[in-house]
Structure formats: C-alpha cells, structure tokens
Amino acid sequence: MKNLKYIITGAIALSVFASSCKKEFLDEKPHELISTDQLADAVKQDPTLLKGMVSGLYSTMYNTGTGGTTGHDDFGQKGNDIYSDMLASDMMLGAQTYGWYATVARYQATKDFTSNQAYVPWRYYYRIIFAANTVIDVLGGNDAVLTDVNLKNYMGQAKAMRAYAYFYLTQFYAEKGYGTGAEKILPLYIDTKAPNQPLSTSAQIFDQIVKDLTESIQILATYNRTNKGEINADVAKGLLAYTYAARGTDADLAKVITLTDEVLAKFPLTTKNAVVAQLDGTGKLLNPESGFNNVATPSWIWGADLTIASNLDLVSWWGQVDVYTYSYASVGDAKVADNALYASIRADDVRKNQFVNSATYKGLIPTGKFFDPARVIQGQRQVTTDYIYMRADEMLLLNAEAKARLSQDAPARDALKKLLALRITDFSYVDGLSGNALKEEIYLQSRIELWGEGKTYLAVKRNKHSVTRGSANLFFPGETFAYDSDELTFPIPQAEVINNPNLKK
Q1: Domain that residue 430 falls in
Q2: How many domains does the chain have?
Q3: Which of 95, 209, 215, 234 is the most exposed place for a label (fewest CB within 10 A)?
Q4: Is the pTM value of this prediction over 0.90?
Q5: Where's the SusD-like N-terminal domain (predicted)?
C-alpha cells in the first residue's frame, strides 16, 4: 500500500496544482511531492482547490487506467461492473476474439493473484480511498468541526466516496462478504498518514462504512448538488441501504426499508417507455427516452454526464457493451445475456425485447436496453452517452427484498408489484407467492431489471445465492457455483502482498 499511496499522492497533487496553484508555490518546492499539509496550506489560500480535488474523485470513476493498467477493461466503476456481471454469469461473452474479460468469464482471474483483473478493482478502489482521505485530511481530519457550508459538503462527499469504495472491496475480495464479522478481509485506512495496515475484520470495515455514510447523510441533508455525478444525501442513503442489506441483520434490514422508502419518495421508477426501445417499420427510434444513456432520466439517482471533454472512446463501458459504439462489442466480443435468464423472462414482459438473438454477435445482445440514440452500428466514436451508477428501481427491489427477508410477505409483494406493473401485462401470479418462493422471485426480477448494471453480483453475495450458468455459456455451461466459492471472489493481488508485509501479521 505504501508505494501505491505515494504514487496517488503525487498524481492528485500534480493534477490539482498544475492547473490551479500559484506559480510561486510551485517554484518554492519544485522537486518534492506535495504533502497533505502543503495542500491544506494551499487550500487556505485558495479554497476553490478543494472543488477540483472532489471533482477528481468523481472523474476517477470513469477515467481510463484508474485501475493501474493500460488494459481496455480498465475504466473505473463501469469496468468493474462488467467484471461483476461476468462473475455473476448473467452477462456472458458471445465470443473471445480479443480476449478482454476472458480470464474473468473463465473464473481464472479469481484464482490467480498475479492476474491484472484481480489487481484492477483493488487499485481502483484504494485509489478512491486515498484520494478521499486526502480531502478529509486537508479539511482537518475525520473529526474536524467545520462551520463553512461548502467545506462541510466536501467532507460529506469525501466520506461517502470512501465508504463506496470500501463497500465494493468487501464484495469483490471477501468470499462471504460480511460473513460472521470476524473474518479478516481488507486493510483499513482512514487517513493518509497511516503506514501499511494489516487486515481488518469485516465487522470493522462495515462499521467504518456505516459511520462514514451516516455522517455523510447528516452533512449533506441540505446539499443541492449541481449534477447527478456528485454524491448527495440520496446517493449516500442508497449506498447505506446496500451496506445494511449486505450485513443483513433484522435491524439492518429494517433500516434498508426506511432508507429506500426515503429515496423512493424523491425519485420515480423508470417508465415502461424508458425501459426498452420501440421502433417503427424502418427501424427509427420512437421513444428517445429509452437506451439508458441519459443522466437526466428522472429515475437516475447517480450517474456520470459524459461529454466530448470526458475523452472516452473505444475504451469504455459503452465500447465494451453497445454494438452502436465503435469498439469491441461490435467487432466480435459482444456481451450477451445468459440464455437461461432470458428464458425466465415472461412473454408479456417488455424487458424480453431488450435483447435480440443475433447470429452475427453470437448471442442475446442488449440492443433494446443499452444503445447510442442514433442506433448506427459502430456509429458512436467519441462517447457522450452517460454512465448509470444508481436508479430508483434498484431501491424498490432492495425494499422488497428486505421485507421478504423479514418475512413481511404482503408488503414485499406490494413493493414488487409496483415495479412489475410497469413491466408485465399480468403480474397477478405474485399474489400467490410467499416465503422462499417470494424471495426467489424478487431475486429473479432484480437480475432481469438490472441486467448489465453491475448489481446482480451484489445480490448474489448478500442473498448467499449460488450461480448456475446457462447452456450457451462458453465456459462451464450448466455448472453451479456457490456465492462464497473461489470462483466468485478475487484474491488480494500480488502487488499488495509484495508491498504490504503486514498482511500476514
């Protein structure tokens, strides 16, 4: 971790000060890395520097190479979402022409600590953590008492980003997620000055996540963000709901219900028209609100507003998934739906039309769900279609799941039917479900609704659900894997093992 920390410190410092700092400051100490103390002094002179630092946290989520490699699968959160969808097996490779994601789909990266794919999420999330800790330290540390509203808002966002990163690390690198609480899973860093840390227990990590997000919600209660790429109280509530659901005590699940109810009071569900493309006889798109490509969609809670200035092209989530974007999906490495999952979608479900069975792309391609609005094969060269991180529908499904896990079957059915009323012609069958059958239906509907959005893997872990691959999968067709199997969790990467001798203490 030590080497990684210094690298990131330099990167943050140089990116911020190259564009913002006074010339005399750079001249005074031209050959040294800029320390956190120096950053704090500079922020006192120019508070706008903090805005750039927090903006850098968010751009890390979509920039390429933020997982420490030059791989074309290394592009922030959405790159990791593809990893998780491949591990959960609802997203498959149609072919392996270029090899990206093959080690994940083959469950090789999850068994090889030297693999780049095991390294990318680790490096990415710890990069977020160190950058968040830098902001927190500059503001005076975790317990700082701030009176300036803008500074408080920066603190709230930084703590939420730290919690977000630790939550995903618990999913990718801890076989049982929370487990019993006693398992040692990750090094915990809450400032930039700590030396290499040993592994902390899952209870310690989750307690820190809950603490950070709870404080963030309080701090950001009156924060009016300028765009959905920023974290506000609603995003923090969504992240906290996921955290409680993953830990999963009865008290936690009751909090999931409260938190998701609060978020759902502010965001509508994704409409039927926005869920799937509707085309006329010539192939012209009739409902431009579809495509999951616009952060302005009312149901989106958190997402990135990508523009030409974002500088994304073929190395992007859109390039890897959308055949209407010039990149891998369109030239031989399509990302397709598991055939068994597709078969489970009812005939009267509009989401059945999100996929087209294509001989060209060797599988069920998501041309009805995710697409560049122009819908020209390979038409989008510079990516301006937006990234989705969180939407209202997943909050409703979490709400229904928590109620079912608490044996509140009737309220769980009511919650699920709110979503299905926008997707299925006849959803009366839900009234006959209870107990485990109801839990399984909520789990299935979560997989269908959130296909390709990086959320199924989280559902696998928190529900302790096994994964069974469909017969069309290129690798291990028909085989079943337990949620806590070696195949579904990355090992701590070699670089961390080498650089952090305290891991074994």
Answers
A1: 55-270+393-504
A2: 2
A3: 95
A4: yes
A5: 87-223
